[in-house]
Amino acid sequence: MQARVERLVTKIEEAGLGGLLVTEAKNIFYLTGFSGTAGTVFVSPKRRIFVTDDRYALIAKQTIQGFDIISTRTALTEIANAIADDGLETLGFEDTVSYQFYQALKAAFPHQDLQAQTNFVEGLRIIKDADEAAIIRRACQISDQAFIDALDFIKPGKTELEVANFLDFRMRELGASGISFDTIAASGFRSAMPHGRASDKVIEAGESLTLDFGCYYQHYASDMTRTVHVGHVTDEEREIYAVTLAANQALIDQARAGMTYIDFDRVPRQLIEDKGYGANFTHGIGHGLGLDVHELPFFTKTADELKPGMVVTDEPGIYLDGLYGVRIEDDLLITETGCEVLTLAPKELIVL
Ligand SMILES: [Mn+2]
Q1: Buried b (16+ CB within 10 A) or exposed e, 85-120
Q2: pLDDT tens by residue, 49-106
Q3: Are 207 and 352 in contact (CB under 8 A)?
Q4: Are residues 237 and 330 in the same domain?
Q5: If you measure from the C-alpha of residue 50 to the centroid of ligand 1, how many angstroms do you get, rounded to a whole number?
Q6: Distance 303 CA to ligand 1 centre (A)
Q7: For residue 17, what are the domain limits?
Q8: How many whole angstroms from 323 Cα to the centroid of ligand 1?
């Protein structure tokens, strides 16, 4: 945590800010280890202040190191008082705050130049250290095992919700603190919708079933997708599964530090286009993963490069409107020479 705050101070100085207010809960956790719901952080080259209310004062004092801890319900006023003699001219704040908060900010800091910041702390979170990578690896193992166990549970006649609830409960049994997003269990024609949340639709023999799910383990998320077939599978379904898997694998084979964001998306997309399904791959290839299930990097078409320590998803999909769809998603830890696949559940075509 101390090293993270040091890096933040460097970034604050480089940005020409006098200090930064941090209000996003996950950024506060990243900097302090505090995971309660009421917290405001102020960091400047000379101050580290953590403000919470009485409900969290004790746990804050026990867990947070290197910060002055203030317990109050008027956080901004207290921070303004605490730094009154610092000569602060510019104050950065996160642009995700509410308008109501912004009005309070202007009232508490009437003499400072307030500068909204986008992804300021998130830009530090983009590179995971070894401890974070180990936690995400474990979160992925929990999802892997839950999927393997679900293979014995999925049968024609079960509803999508029953399968989703099985996955959710099993991940908790295996040590997860919760799910990282509403589990997608989309069968048959519903699997053509990339984000079909589990419904009470009954899974029929002859249908595909796309499961997109993940858990939180020690505050970090996993996110994986597998598509299975129930009862039997047609030659066309086999072909589409094979193309999707080849695209997923091509990216695993080529992903490495130094690869541009453009190429990260292009490698699997080109393969799908070459097979004639380009128009059926209707979303981006993936996203970063960490304290949030969707976080930096996002694979916009820029020449930014992957760096060692990034954790990203590789999730090509092919969707045939009204019929069915296939998506396969893995979580990858980018290394100097390639990538480590963190989600290791089977990917060969499974017919249950
Ligand atoms: Mn994903």
Answers
A1: eeebeebbbbeeeeeebeebbeebbeebeeeebebb
A2: 999 999 998 999 999 999 999 999 899 999 999 999 999 999 999 999 999 999 999 9
A3: no
A4: yes
A5: 33
A6: 22
A7: 2-125
A8: 22
Q: Are 196 and 70 within one domain?
A: no
- pTM (two decimals): 0.95
Q: Of 95, 125, 155, which residue is a domain's last? A: 125
Cα–Cα distance measured from residue 180 to residue 166, given in angstroms and rounded to the nearest whole number: 15
Residues lining ion ligand 1 (Cβ < 5 A) are: 223, 313
Give the number of C-alpha atoms closer than 13 A to the C-alpha of residue 78, restricted to the C-beta side: 17
What is the distance between the alpha carbons of residues 228 and 146, in angstroms, rounded to a whole number? 14
Q: Ligand 1 centroid to 223 CA: how many Å?
A: 5
| pLDDT at residue 301 tops 80 | no
Q: Ligand 1 centre from 22 Cα, in Å?
A: 26
Are 112 and 138 part of one and the same domain? no
The answer to whether residue 348 sits within a structural domain is: no
Give helix 130-150 / helix 160-173 axis angle, nearest 10°. 130
Rounded distance between C-alpha atoms, residue 228 and residue 28, angstroms:
39
Domain boundary pick from 125, 144, 167: 125
Considering the domain boundaries, does residue 346 fall inside one? no
Q: What's the 315 CA to ligand 1 centre distance in angstroms?
A: 7
Is 224 part of a structural domain of the chain?
yes
Backbone angles phi, psi at 95, to 5 degrees: -75, 5
> Could you give the CA distance from residue 74 to residue 148 in angstroms, rounded to a whole number?
49
Phi, psi angles (nearest 5°) of residue 162: -65, -40
Same domain, 197 and 322: yes
Distance between CA atoms of residues 214 and 222, nearest Å:
5
Q: Do 191 and 247 share a domain, yes or no? A: yes
CATH of the domain at 260: 3.90.230.10
Helix (H) / strand (E) containing 327: strand 324-327
